[in-house]
Amino acid sequence: MEHGAATAPLPDAFLHFLESNGIDPSIYTSIDSTPRYIRLKPGFEDCIEDVESEIKCKPKKLEWLLGFYTLPPHIQIASTNAYREGKIYGIDASSGAAVMALGISPGDHVLDLCAAPGAKLCMILDLLGDSGSVTGVDAARHRLAACRTMLQKYKLGDRCRLFVADGTTFSVIPEGFRSDSESYESRSEERMDVFKEWTSRRPWKERKKAKKCPTPQVVSKSHPPELIYYGQHSGVIGLTKGELYKTVAENEIAGYGYDKVLVDAECTHDGSVKHIQKFEHWGWVTLQRRVLDAERMDNLHALQLNLLTNGFRLLKVGGSLVYSTCSLTVAQNEDVVEQFLKENITAELTEIDAARKWPCKGGRIQKTWRFDPLTSQTSGLFVAKFRKVVI
Ligand SMILES: C[S@@+](CC[C@H](N)C(=O)[O-])C[C@H]1O[C@@H](n2cnc3c(N)ncnc32)[C@H](O)[C@@H]1O
């Protein structure tokens, strides 16, 4: 079977995967007509004219998503000055929609539980501006390091903390919470060991320890969270390790948890046509092993449910959580949502106000949404939003 998008035909195993998941294979032929998206960093709106003169093509304003523009798919932005100087981002509009679904308000403390490489994290920080905080977590050290580089490039790290940690067990709450029982005196002996201004140069003690026992690239559930970056106003400076990693009782999270949580979960990425195309170079056998393997699929389902469950646990009462994946399968989306709702009586699926303007279609469950290249002219994405209620 020939597909316009792929220079090689899609393999039978992948076509079978699409068919058994009710996914229309023609989305993989629409890549040539799916635009490229850029987002302007707030405050740099004027640079759109410079971009236009550099790429010799007029970016078209996206009516349904503030700050986003479309470009023809073949246009590259990496060599433009605006991109190199951190004034524009390359980010798909569906990803922007997932962030908008959070409904960020000034002062929010936001948790991004699968944060790397960080396109959504940057957008959250841009929306927050000079208030609140963002905590980014990812199990893959190298990917989170790339996220840190991105924060630095876009000068967005001031209110951010990044932890290499497993999102299914991560338990660090936002800063600002102190138990009354802990007096300043009881902490004074630890005062020597407080976090100072962040520097990329690790203290000698840490470097020696890392040399002795090299840290894993992808961490497991039992690995304690590791802070790999924090900004000046992230609330970390001045704390001791004991304070930062303080264990909080479940009932306290209801009051002191995060205002907003994004669980942009690990998935098969089958909705990302560009990602699937990469297997032409990596070899379709790799796709079989990395994506279609039955055991991996079962593990993925469990991982997605566990990420969603833990993200929700860390949410304060009244707070909102957005679950998204770039898979178009029901198993990784609606099935996860259904199972999660069955197991969590304080979770309520809610309307996404912004979705009224989105060029997407409803999911199999009411109030959930699906973007795909044919319907939305974007990459594929599933989005659902929950609120934590009191029962
Ligand atoms: C879809 S990507 C996230 C994309 C990101 N939100 C962005 O906008 O750039 C999924 C991420 O989940 C991470 N991941 C996989 N398993 C994880 C786990 N158990 N805990 C935390 N992150 C995990 C992967 O390393 C990967 O970076």
UniProtKB/TrEMBL annotation:
<dbReference type="GO" id="GO:0001510">
    <property type="term" value="P:RNA methylation"/>
</dbReference>
<keyword id="KW-0808">Transferase</keyword>
<keyword id="KW-0694">RNA-binding</keyword>
<feature type="binding site">
    <location>
        <position position="166"/>
    </location>
    <ligand>
        <name>S-adenosyl-L-methionine</name>
    </ligand>
</feature>
<dbReference type="Pfam" id="PF01189">
    <property type="entry name" value="Methyltr_RsmB-F"/>
</dbReference>
<dbReference type="InterPro" id="IPR049560">
    <property type="entry name" value="MeTrfase_RsmB-F_NOP2_cat"/>
</dbReference>
<dbReference type="InterPro" id="IPR029063">
    <property type="entry name" value="SAM-dependent_MTases_sf"/>
</dbReference>
<dbReference type="InterPro" id="IPR001678">
    <property type="entry name" value="MeTrfase_RsmB-F_NOP2_dom"/>
</dbReference>
<protein>
    <recommendedName>
        <fullName>SAM-dependent MTase RsmB/NOP-type domain-containing protein</fullName>
    </recommendedName>
</protein>
<feature type="binding site">
    <location>
        <position position="264"/>
    </location>
    <ligand>
        <name>S-adenosyl-L-methionine</name>
    </ligand>
</feature>
<dbReference type="GO" id="GO:0003723">
    <property type="term" value="F:RNA binding"/>
</dbReference>
<comment type="similarity">
    <text>Belongs to the class I-like SAM-binding methyltransferase superfamily. RsmB/NOP family.</text>
</comment>
<feature type="active site" description="Nucleophile">
    <location>
        <position position="326"/>
    </location>
</feature>
<feature type="domain" description="SAM-dependent MTase RsmB/NOP-type">
    <location>
        <begin position="23"/>
        <end position="389"/>
    </location>
</feature>
<dbReference type="InterPro" id="IPR023267">
    <property type="entry name" value="RCMT"/>
</dbReference>
<dbReference type="InterPro" id="IPR023269">
    <property type="entry name" value="RCMT_subfamily_9"/>
</dbReference>
<dbReference type="GO" id="GO:0008173">
    <property type="term" value="F:RNA methyltransferase activity"/>
</dbReference>
<keyword id="KW-0489">Methyltransferase</keyword>
<keyword id="KW-0949">S-adenosyl-L-methionine</keyword>
<feature type="binding site">
    <location>
        <position position="138"/>
    </location>
    <ligand>
        <name>S-adenosyl-L-methionine</name>
    </ligand>
</feature>
